[in-house]
Amino acid sequence: MDSRNRNFIDRCITQLDQAVRTVFGEPAGSDRSNPAGPVQDGEFTATGQAESVCLMRVNHAGEVCAQALYQGQALTARNREVRDQMQQASDEENDHLAWCRQRIRELGGHTSLLNPVWYTGSFLLGATTGLLGDKWSLGFLAETEQQVVRHLEGHLQRLPENDKKSQAILEQMKTDEAKHRDTAVNSGGTELPETVKKAMTVMSRVMTTTAYRI
Ligand SMILES: [Fe+2]
Ligand SMILES: [Fe+2]
Q1: Residues lying with their CB under 5 A of ligand 1, a single-atom ion
Q2: Interatomic CA distance for residues 117 and 69, integer angstroms
Q3: Which CATH number covers residue 86?
Q4: Ligand 1 centre from 45 Cα, in Å?
Q5: How far apart are CA 150 and CA 86, in angstroms?
Q6: What is the pLDDT of residue 24?
């Protein structure tokens, strides 16, 4: 077997390990501390707590998708530098995944039962856009991150006022996603056609509406 094939198989095995950790196990986050750590919550009503669980479940599912997208793209990206950047962004998304998961547990909720479905769909989408070439896959990433920033702004408005811990997590995520968007644009991501952007909005709405409930 030549070294190129061996490298590809090594990467596949690493991706599989990350996939299982993302969906079923403890995600291996970086050294960054949880932004909710030093924050104190206010008093919660039962309704407010239930709403926080649903919103954070959506955000956790979104991070499962982000992991899968980045991993799918990293697997098929042609340029080594682009691949490394995707891996780094994927590591940062892992922090978001771990923070959301921890918050859901603290609130007494559960993560989306459909996470394996979100992961598989997003991985295939990421791998496909990776095959279209780096400028398209980076453009797809930039648009995804832009939509995530807008989505997080909406959730920050919807979270109960006293859920300071969830708010702290979403604020840090919003900062990171905007950085990922800028990196993708600066690395040569091209602007996507409006129809593609609209299709992406519809797809993410299906995911967010379903994960809110299940
Ligand atoms: Fe994220
Ligand atoms: Fe991101």
Answers
A1: 66, 93, 96
A2: 13
A3: 1.20.1260.10
A4: 28
A5: 21
A6: 67
Give me the number of domains the chain comprises. Answer: 1
Structure tokens at 153: 């702004």
66: CA distance to ligand 2 center in Å? 7
Distance 144 CA to ligand 2 centre (A): 8
Size (the chain), residues? 214
Residue 200 lies in a domain: yes
- In 3-state terms the chain splits into helix, strand, coil percentages (rounded to 5) of 75, 0, 25
Distance, CA 160 to ligand 1 centroid (Å)?
A: 21
Ligand number, closest to the Cα atom of 95? 1
Could you tell me the residue range of the domain that residue 144 belongs to? Answer: 51-213
Enter the pTM of the model.
Answer: 0.83
CA angle 194, 196, 198 (to 5 degrees): 70
Q: Is residue 36 part of a domain?
A: no
3-state SS assignment for residue 154 = helix
Q: Is residue 20 part of a domain?
A: no
Write out pLDDT tens, residues 76-126. 767 777 777 777 777 788 899 999 999 999 999 999 999 999 999 889 888
Q: How far is the CA of 171 from the centre of ligand 2 (A)?
A: 13
Could you tell me the distance, in angstroms and rounded to a whole number, from the CA of residue 43 to the centre of ligand 2?
Answer: 31
